[in-house]
Structure formats: structure tokens, C-alpha cells
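Fold these two proteins, one after the other.
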Amino acid sequence: MAIADIAAYAHLNEAEIEALGHELDAIRRDVEESRGERDAAYIRRTIKFQRTLDVAARLVIGCSRSRTGWAVGTAALAYAKSIENMEIGHNVGHGQWDWMNDPEIHSSTWEWDMVGVSSQWRYSHNYRHHMYSNVVGVDDDLGFGVIRMTRDQEWKPEHLFQPLRNLLLASIFEWGIGLHGIHSERDRLTPDHAKVVEARKAFAAKIARQSLKDYVLVPALSRSRWRRTLGANVTANLLRNFWAYAVIFCGHFPDGAEKFTADVLDNETKGEWYLRQMLGAANFNAGPLMAFSSGNLCYQIEHHLFPDLPSNRLAQIAVRVREVCDKYDLPYTSSSLARQYFLVLRTIHKLALPDRFLVATSDDAPETASERKFLDGAGPGKSPGGLRTALRERGRKRR
């Protein structure tokens, strides 16, 4: 089973969790009070760079007659789309730049370059996912409804095909996000049928606009070379989808990104919410270029703690979050992108099988754990330290 008692699992008492919450609140206040022109210049510069790269890439695709030119232009277009999707669209949609009071860079007005409707995504992602991160049966992002990511999700014969579903989801990730958004919007608006119909029309209209732009109008501008441009647009969207999928899955589903039962939501304090975000997310190691390319979502732990703080601040926030983890003896889950993705794929392929073919218990498996894994004597008050020490000691004994 997933974690039902987060304090017991974290090896922290009520006072310690409250103190942890105060320290994280202090980090938030420090960043909020220091936001200014430098941060505003960063997002404006990023938008200018992305738009310039987009135009340059399309000119190279349309004007070059060589295969090399097509490949270079397509790669540049895919990168421009990735930046727009994650470092701009995702982060603006979180309200990270609303403090600027710029109507052109505001969560309520920004519409990103993909088929999903931004307003519908903001509800499914900002609220349903970030408020209830990794809570089984509540967070719809846990496997996105098509992939079994924890043994708390009942196995069904259809899960045998989830390795193929995973590949399909990666290929059409923007469509998955769009459908995910309209699904959550339907749940939110029900039983108001008129508003549900309106939401579906908005989604259909966005699909029509996006498809018309990418697959009709832009290729038509190339006239006799429309096939070349169409192929570049399809390829760039595919590459953007794969990259966004990889970044999102590596931040949510490798070993160490824990899952929770709905019990943790009962009378959940701010400190417990912070703790759930820290235990339920994972980072991957990245330098400045990789961080920028991923929308700074290589800092998924920090993003989940402070989803509305500017993405360009997450690197400095990460230093302080690590210090908090060290102080309270909590794990800070981070590894290389390649390793995190390998762990994700291992979980996807393993959980495609019925539970009877799995070795570890549902309380003590790499992808699913609970506080009951410590009932053999390493529980709170019995371990030599906090959670990180207890996990290390448990691993040593098992070896």
C-alpha cells in the first residue's frame, strides 16, 4: 500500500514537521521579497529568444535545399517548441510571472503552442495535480489514467499493453495533456451540462487552430515545398512531445518518488503538504543548459514545493532545500536523467504484470512503499536517525 501516515514514514514528529514548514515558508518569503527587474528581464529575454529561434528555424527549413539544412532547421524548431512548452508556457501558466502585472505574460492570458487549452490545463495541473500530488485515486497525473505506476492501482489485463501505451503516450504527449485537461474540466463542471459542452467546444476549437497552423497554413507558405515544411512540423512536434514526456516522467515516477493514500489528506497541515511534495517528486542532475531546456523542471522537488515561484530561481532554492533535507535527515531524490528514465521504464514494464509475478511486497518495493516497511523494528524512535538514515540502514541489512 502507499503511504497513509506521512509522519511515521518520514520519521518526524508533529513539532518537527511544523518547524520544517516554517523553514520552507521562510524560503518562499525570501524569494518573493527579492523578485524584481532581473527576473522580469529573464522571462522577457526567454520569450524573445524563443520567438527568434522559431522564425529562424522556419526560414532555414523553407529556404534550405539540403537534407542537412532541413535537419538543422527541424532540430531548432523542436527546441523552440520545447522552450515555449516548458520554460515559458508551463511556468507562465503556473502564475510564476503574475507578480509582474504584465497582461501579455500572465497565467490568465497566455495560450501555449499545443493542442491543450491553457485554462483547462491550469485546473487539471495546478489544482488537481499540485494540490494532491501522487495521492492514489485523487491525482489524475499518476499514470495519466493509462499507465499503472503503483501496486495500489488494481491490475487489469489491459495493463499488459502498457509498455506500448507508454510509447504511444510519449509520441502524442501534447494530445494526452489536452485530453487530460478536458477530462478534469468535465469532472469540475459536472453536472452543469451547458458548461461541459462549452469546454468541449473550446478544446475542439484549439485542436482546429493548432492543426490548421502546423499542418496547413505554415506548409502552404512554402508553396511547392510544402511537403518539406509539413514533415519538419510533424517531426518537431514529435521531438517536443518526447522531450516533455521524458522530463515529466523523470520528475514524478522514478524510485524514491513516493505515492500516498487519500488518508494523508485528512486534516493535512501546511508542513505535511510540504513534506508530501518533497517525498513525492524527484530531480535529475542538470547544468544550466539542460535546466533551461527542461523548463527548470530538473528541479521538480523545488517546483512542487513552490510551483508559483519563478523558474530561474529554482537552482538557488535547491541549495536551501537540500540543507533542509540534511537538517531533518530526509532523502533528496536526484540522479542522472538517464538513470531516472531507466527506473521509470523498469516500473512501467514491471507493473504491466499481475502482482503475483512481482517479488517485493506492496509496502517495500522500489516504486511503492509505505510506513509499514519499518514495522520490523526500524520505525520512528527505533532507527538511529531520520528517514534517510533508516532507508540507508535498511538497504545495508538487505544487502
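Now the second one:
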Amino acid sequence: MNTPTLVSSLIFAAVVAVIVSYLIHLMLRGWRHRAERQVSLVGTLPPMPETVGPAEIPATKGLYVGSTLAPQWNDRIAVGDLGYRSKAVLTRYPEGVMLQRIGGTPIWIPAASIVAIRTERGHAGKALTFDGILVIRWTLPSGTDIDTGFRADDHSVYETWTGKEDG
């Protein structure tokens, strides 16, 4: 490679690196601003109970897709770690639903807060070609309704969670 070509390649690479880092900066800034706007809507999550009864629906392994402001399936919550996907285990107790996330804080959904449990084709930026995401709509202590999405490893358990039979 001759010197002018090398210099122009290095300049081009530097310009691309600056543009990419600027775009990443803008995305992170947008995420922080979204969290600032949502903090009053979300407030604090319900506290974990001291004890729970026996599991009504046993532990279901899968992926925590994220939580969104209801009814917008694509308006991901950026407060705390509610917006980050992670592997998780979902269990139903008489007192509510426990969502234990790998690498994230557990989420407790009290039974009295649950508005609906249904399946959806898309949630929190993840879209599928079939009803592959279990969505729990519930009301936070602040009064805001949110949808929490969970994609189970075994989709046949959805009828147990929703109370509907497929077909």
C-alpha cells in the first residue's frame, strides 16, 4: 500500500470511529432521558413478601423480555434494570408471581395487582410470528399499568398461565 492510500484509509477509519462513538453516546443519552421521564410513573416496585405459599404453577424457565408502559408494547421501561433482557424463572404463588432474573433484581407481582395474563406476538422490541410471549399486565404501587414480558423455553405452559387451551 502506498503512503497516500494508507493515510486516507487511516483518516477514513478515524472518521468512522468518531461517528460510531457519537451515535453510541446519543443512544445512551436517550436511554438516560427516558429513565428520567419514567421515574415518577414507575416509582418503587412492590416489596418481596416474607413468605409465600406452595407454588400454584411450578417454575417456568425462559427469557425475561422486558417491561413496558401499558398499552404500548414497544415503550420499554428504562428505570432501574427493568429494561434489560435476561434469563429468568417465572413462578406463580397464591400471593402473586415471582420473576427471578439472572443478573437482575427479582420482580414480585402481587396477585391483587395483576390485571391480565395473556400471550402476544411482540413485546419490548421482540417480535415473533406466533403468540410466543407471555405478558402479565399489572399495576404498580404508583398506579401505572405496565406489561411484563416473558418468553418461556416451553411454550406449552402458556395455557396453564393464561387459563386458555390452544386450538
